[in-house]
Here is the input.
Amino acid sequence: MTPGNTSLRGLHETETTRPVGVGMHHVGPADNLQESKRAGKLRRPDSYFSDQFRLAHQALVLVSRGASERDAVQRAAASDPRLTNVKREALALVLGTTSEQDVIDILVRNAHPQEKMGMSARCLFRLTTYAMLRPGARGQMRRIEHSVRAIAPSDLIPRLEFFFGTLSALNTTGLLSGLRDSERVALQTHHPVWWVNYCFRLLGRGDAVTFLSTRSRPRYFRVNPLKNRGRTTLPKELGSLAERLTKVPSAQGVYIVSGSPSAFAGFFSSGSFQMQDLASYLAIEAGSPRPGESVLDLCAAPGAKTAAIAQLMKNRGTIVSVDYSPARMKSWRREVQRLGVKIADPVISDASRLGLHDTFDLAVIDPPCTGTGVFDRNPRMKWHLSPESVGRYSVLQRRFLESAVSLVGEEGRILYCTCSLTVEENEHVVAPFLKSHPEFETRPVLEQYGSPGLMGLGDCRRFYPHRDWTAGYFIARLQRTN
Here is the structure.
């Protein structure tokens, strides 16, 4: 079920689910560029394309060391101001390369079976493979090769020259021969085999393949009433840009953006707009924060949920926002200041070992998770997770939920949510909690959205990217009943 019983598929102009083969498929923000912009790029000098590859390569090295794709691009661009104007194109290259890393690594090994590479060289070969084999690259080969040569160390160029010739002759279809079904689907959709098998069990094979093949989802933003005279309507200053926005039914002030959000940069800078996935915002709505209440926001950084809480509370009441990371809380401070939040106080602490003695009307728990519902925006995560990772996160999440019990007052409530689709991190966390705390019970939320929770937890909601055009999400509202 989608918002207001109206399918979001009709609102999203770009086809985001398509059969995926072993061949390379371009993923990322550049998917939505108009043809006129593509033509304009073709007229740009070669140095512009070399800068894209330079920034993408530097960012991929940072990703290999644990940085997120977007943070890696930002950090690499900050070290060389000349690269600032190609961040968007470089991010598309980084996301695409990281998303399809499994097949890319197989192709690199086939071309250089005995070659030992350092990480910087490996990232350059990965980037080259993605760039040369993505759709539409055939007419760009000279430019791609020139860009790679321009950024490669001199001792690596002979191996790259050999690779240029070898790559075009590789038979990617042969990679699927002799594989089991789940292994073949894993390569076709660019996911680890264990996750493919998990999705088969969770969704059934047919639905799982559709889910795993979903390449992108809409980008959402909300009008911020704290910076828009208390209104959630579009500001008149938008002018013709309003034509690029499609209102989401039944979600006040929420819009789908077509094309690049960068056209709205001024409105984001002023705090008039806030980028946030629809499911993430609906999770806050499910908690029903009200003006004058006291709210505890655990794992609060980088601040999107804190801001949404403050907006629903109309900046009246109290929010205590907790996160363990000083660096992340710096981002939180910038975000809440940009969005005009005046009622939130930051606390740097381990949310599972809080020393707070106050009680709150609402505790929002958005704990660390595997992120299996947002692989499309954070593809590096899927290559570092395992079934054991799921179990470790589940233990941590139970600890977070348990820590909130003493902090919720009479008739208070807990909002538990994750951007993961695994049962272990969701229903297996909530069900034991309810069994050990009979003073809490689930309450129905968001019944016009998503799908019911599993394991008999029908009051909870699940969101699936291929069905609901949002991040994959789980949302549960736990009410203290006394």
User: Anything to note?
Assistant: The longest strand covers residues 408-418. The chain has three domains: 17-174, 178-213, 278-480. Residues 419 and 473 are 4 Å apart (CA to CA). The mean pLDDT is 89.
